Structures are given as structure tokens and as C-alpha cells.
Amino acid sequence: MTTGTTPFDITSLPDDRGRFGEFGGSYAPVTLIPAVEELRTAYNEIREDPEFHIEFESLLKNYVGRPTPLYFATGLTDAIGGPKIYLKREDLVHTGAHKINNAVGQGLLAKKMGKPRVIAETGAGQHGVATATVCAKMGLECVIYMGELDVERQALNVARMRLLGAEVRAVSSGSRTLKDAMNEAIRDWVTNVENSYYLIGSVAGMHPYPMMVRDFQSVIGREARDQIREAEGRLPDAIVACVGGGSNAMGIFHPFLEHAEVALHGAEAAGDGVGTERHAATLTAGHVGVLHGSRSYVLQDADGQIMEAHSISAGLDYPGVGPEHSYLKDSGRATYHPVTDAEALDGFKLLCRTEGIIPALEPAHAIHLAQRLSGDMSSDDIMIINLSGRGDKDMHTVTEALGVMS
Amino acid sequence: MTTATTPSRIAGHFAELASQNRKALVPYVTVGHPTKESTLEIVPALIEGGATMVELGVPFSDPLADGPTIQRSGFKALQNGVTLAFCLETARDLRAGGVEVPLIFMGYYNPILRYGLERFVADCAEAGVDGFIIPDLPPDESAELAAISRKHQRDLIFMVAPTSRDQHIESLNGQASGFVYCVSITGVTGARDDVSVDLPAFLARVRSKLELPLAVGFGISTPEHVREIGRDADGVIVGSALISRFDEADPADAPTVAREFMRYLSGQA
Ligand SMILES: Cc1ncc(COP(=O)(O)O)c(C=O)c1O
Q1: Kind and range of the H or E element at A86?
Q2: Helix axis angle, B254-265 relative to B240-248, nearest 10°?
Q3: Cis peptide before B111 (omega within 30 of 0)
Q4: Best probe residue, ligand 1, of A98, A240, A243, A351 (max atoms within 8 Å of C-beta)
Q5: Do residues A228 and A382 make contact, with C-beta atoms less than 8 angstroms apart?
Q6: Residue-wise pLDDT tens digits, A163-198
Q7: What does the domain layout of chain B look like in residue ranges?
Q8: Shortest CA distance to A297 belongs to which of A333, A247, A336?
């Protein structure tokens, strides 16, 4: 399949202030304002530069292992008994999750901008591993911020990052998860702005990050669009993806936005349930606010304090969400559904047993949501699930949880 | 509601100090730290010790422009049950207790947004809060709050940093009021041994582009800093160095600690 050298669709949102409707923008601390402007300028240049796209796509092909298959999951389809289900196999890329697509793109940009030092936040550790990988390959110094709780539950990924030469800094403030890692990464950036590039791992943060990360991830959706046309001769009826910060979902959604007949569904982590205090279902239960540089839905209390998110999956354990998802929700173009820890574990087991694929806990939420939505669909319908990553990193968490829950 | 013609209390304050050839000494304290009610005694003690204006920190769960000291004080305040409404109540009580120096809130945008911009500014006016500094609200995103602030004659105070471009600094003319908060270093809040060597040049650059008084903050911890910076600036802001002294002392002694530290900084002790 050709990926070609087509520049990204630059006619779409956001506007030049980084707004998706009322969402997005750039709420940067004063010290960072010039750095964010510099990044915006640099990204605008490469966005339309055919040479950059040739280099990016060559790395995606030869280093990352793209295109990834769009796999007709007959076992899962039979077990669920609804639409034909295809899996977009992001679990098969180098390092095991979609995060590498964005890390490669931003790594190239950091090089181009002449920044020798890269900082990143990570939750599940997949973005940290992807960033450490790219830095090793490109000869960049790498510092990864990770909440203490995540350092514990994603120990395998911590070991991988260290092997790859990255320094992993455990963050002990706040909820000791992704949000706090992001606070600490921003503080580092404020302090070392001259020589450091902040490589954000999701479609969050100040403009241009939500747009840029989406652009780099939209290779997922462009491939899937071509692949489903080839396999079925038409576009799917529904696409399902999990939403943490929202990058794998934005990546697969974006090329389908203009095709109104394709329903877009996001699975949010509902932890113990949205009726409890322990969940991460930002779009379902949040209020509009400002966190980490952009305006979007945020889990917060009545006093505007950010709440601690809870999910069995470290990658979804975040009280914010990318601004474009907030826009898609309010405009009705996409629908977001809560999926609990227990339901995600069911989805996890289901995929293991019907397909011989061990998913990461994040897309396990999407598997469950697909099953839930299938009840209203017929066997003529087509659904694509974005299988954003593989489950090796979660074996510890899952064996513990299933030991208790099964 | 008044019309926006008379100068704010903050502008008047700087003008008065300038006429006496004095500099503003501005401590930052987190409201409700070390104990929930302590701010009511700490602020008068700071003024007795030589503070000419006071910054009241509104605690936030995710203070991304702050170093460990102010972060910890904010978390403690949140544990103590401090809310934005409580901060307003504290300001009101301070005014009722006779505090007359300018009071400024420093806090992050989300709690203010959740409270409601119009309601926030109106309640600040009613409680006697003269202005606010919002580290995560850059000029490009602040048009709405700036308009509401003007209507209620409150000062929306902007920050500039050594990294700020000339263009950015110039764009504050007409938008900024009260004073301009000059961040002394490229970094987060926190006491440091040395203040930036480039500070005089940075202040001269800002001064050449803006008409407003300049106050310098971030990292200031000694009387030498205060004196040195006072040569080029109209005021100095001291946060972490004060808060870490509260951390080391018995909470009951906080007002004494506050008074003595202000005396020490202003060269009276
Ligand atoms: C496999 C996988 N899927 C999904 C996510 C969630 O991130 P996003 O919503 O940005 O895709 C993560 C984050 O770590 C992940 O590792």
C-alpha cells in the first residue's frame, strides 16, 4: 500500500489560534510562550515540506513497521455475533503501541529544531518507551517523567526505557500518575527551555500539540480507510477506539471525520464506575476547564480543583482529554462511552481467547465497547476497532486483577 | 459599579512609594497555610515587618509554574479545606480587620473559570482584592477577563520572563495594569542562592517598552537580593523563602516568623 507524500489536510481545524470551536488554545506559562511560538513556526514549516514527509514516511515504513494490517477478526466477530469486526493492528508496530508514530514525527522535529535534549511524560510507559527509542536512534538525550504509581505498575516499561538510555524520573506529587508526570515535564521545560524539546505523547497540551500529534497519528486512519475500501469496497459503519488523552482515537477518527456515515465511538475509562469517585471518564463526567495548556473537558470538583483519575489502565488514567475530542463530543460527530475496569478485563479476556491476541488494557476498553455497540448492528455492518497496543506490559496488572476478579 | 477613570489602589501604591523613593516589598503567602485561619494573622504581621503589598496564593491541585516549596504549601492548604470562596472570605476579613495595603490574588486559571469570571472579579472587588496574577493565562487568552477586570477596576497583572520577546512585552501596553511581574529566572518558583546576572539588562529592556512599575519575583531570598534588585526594579516579590520558614517553624509561630523575615529582608533586623 502506498502512503505517498501527501501533506496533511491543512484546511481543517484548529484555527490559527489552536481553537477547535471553544476548545484548545494555548494557556502557556510566560516563560514558555516563545518556545511554543517557535515550535508552532517549526511545525508549520515541516507540515508542508515534502522532504520531511518523505523522511517521516520512510521511518514509519522501515523502522516502525507500517502499514499495520487491518485484520478481519473472524473469531471475535463470531463470538460477538454482530457486525464484521476488523482490528487495526497498532499492537504490531515497533515498541508495541501507536505512540511510536508520534514519537518519530516529533523526534525528527526536535532534531530539525536543534534541540539536543528531549523530555516527555508517560502513563503506561508506552509513550516513554517510544520516546526513549526514538532518542536512542536519533542521538538525543532523553528524560522521562512518570508517576510513582505507574513506575510500579508498568515496571517492564521502566526497564525498557532505562535500557534504551533514558533517565526515568519518578514523580511523587499529587495522584502520582500521568497528570502529575505532565506537570513535572512542563516544569522541566520551563527550566530548560533553551535546549529542551517537550515531546508530548497525546493530543493534549497547548497549541500546536493537539493538532501536531493528531497529524502524526492520522496515518492510522488513512491506512485504515484505504484498507477497508480494498477489503470491503466501502467505508465502515463504525469505528471504536479507546480515549486517554485521545491520540490513537484522533489518529483513526480524523481521516473519517468528513465521512458522516461513519459513526465514531470513543471508550473512556470508567474505573469502578462513573457513579463512583474512582474513574477517568472525562468526557462523560467532566466540566469544561483548562488543564495543561488547553481548554477542554476536565475532571474537576466544584471548586475547580483537578480530580485524581482512576483506571486499571495506566494509559487512560488521566483527568483531561484532548480538545478536539471535546469539540467532537459537543458537535455530536463522535460519541463517548464509559467502560469500567471489570468490563475492560472482560474485553481483554475475550480478545485473548477468540483471536489469540493479548491486547493492552487501554484498547481492551474499546473491545468491550465494540461488544456493547454490536447489539444494535447487523451482520452486514462493518466495524473497525483500533487495537492501539499489545498487552505484555499489563501481564502483572491483569494476573493480579483476574486472580481477584475471576 | 464605578467607572474606570480613577487609578487602582495598586497604581496609587507604586506612585506613592516612588514619590518617597521607596520600593515595594511584596511577600507571597498561600492562603490557609500553614493552618487554615493563619493567614488572618500572618498578613498583618507581614505588614508590620515592612511588607507594602501582599500576594495571596489561591491553592491549586496542579500548580505547574511552581517549585516544590509552593507546591507543598498549596497541597497543605487544599487539605486544610481552602477554596477560592474561602480565599475571598479571607481577603474580606483582612479588610474588615483594618488591612489597607493592596492585596493581590495569585492563582491558576481553572478554579477561576469554574467560579465564573464575572462572579470572580465582582467578588474580588467586593472583598477588597485589587488585582490578580494568573500564571497560566497568557495575554492571548485573557481578553474576556481583561474586559471584566476593567469594568470592576481590578488590575489584571501580567508576567514577563527573560525569554519574552520584545513584541510580547510591547503588546502588554494598554492591556496590562497595576504593575508588571518580571520573572527573574528561566524556571519555576523557588528560593535560589543567586539571582540572574542578566537581570539589570532584562529590566532595562522591559522598562524601555512599558510604562508600568516593575516588580521582580522568583528565587529571591535574602536582603542582598532585595537591595540589589531594588536598584533596578520598583518592587520585589518573595514567596518560597518565606514559606519554607513557615515549614520549619511551629505553625503557631507563623505570624512571628512572618514579621521577622520581613524585617530581615528590608534590612531592619
Ligand atoms: C496502548 C495504548 N493505547 C492507548 C493509550 C492512551 O493514549 P491515547 O488516548 O493518547 O491514545 C495508551 C497510553 O499510554 C497506550 O499505551
Answers
A1: strand A84-89
A2: 140
A3: no
A4: A98
A5: yes
A6: 999 999 999 988 899 999 999 999 999 999 999 999
A7: 24-265
A8: A336
pLDDT, tens only, B137-183: 999 999 999 999 999 999 999 999 999 999 999 999 988 999 999 99
Please tell me the distance between residue A366's alpha carbon and the centre of ligand 1 in angstroms.
Answer: 11
- Give me the residue from A31, A180, A287 closest to B114, CB to CB: A287
Dist CA A300 CA A286 (whole Å): 7
Please provide the DSSP assignment of B68-88 as one string: HHHHHHHHHHHHTT--HHHHH
Closest to A367 in 3D by CA, of A241, A282, A207: A241
- Does the structural domain B24-265 have CATH classification 3.40.50.300? no
Cβ neighbours of residue A276 closer than 8 Å, sequence gap 6 or more:
none
**Whether B123 is catalytic:** no
**Number of helices and strands in chain A (H, E):** 16, 14
Q: How far is CA A345 from CA A52, A311, B29, B181, in A?
A: 41, 12, 47, 51
Q: What is the grid cell recorded at A111?
A: 532534531
The set of residues, in sequence order, having a beta carbon less than 8 Å from that of A258 and lying 6+ positions away, is: none
Residue nearest to ligand 1 atom 12, measured at CA: A315
* B174 and B146 Cβ atoms separated by less than 8 Å: no
Task: Tell whether B143 lies on the interface with A, counting CB pairs under 8 A.
Answer: no
The answer to whether the complex's ipTM is over 0.90 is yes
φ, ψ of residue A184 to 5 degrees: the values are -70, -35
State which of A157, A247, A252, A358 you would mutate to test the pocket of ligand 1, scoring each by most atoms of that ligand within 8 A of its C-beta: A247
What digits encode the pLDDT tens for the residues A43-60? 999 999 999 999 999 999
Query: Rounded distance, CA B94 to CA B74, Å?
Result: 20
**Torsions phi, psi for A68 (to 5 deg):** -85, 150
Q: Is B253 a catalytic residue?
A: no
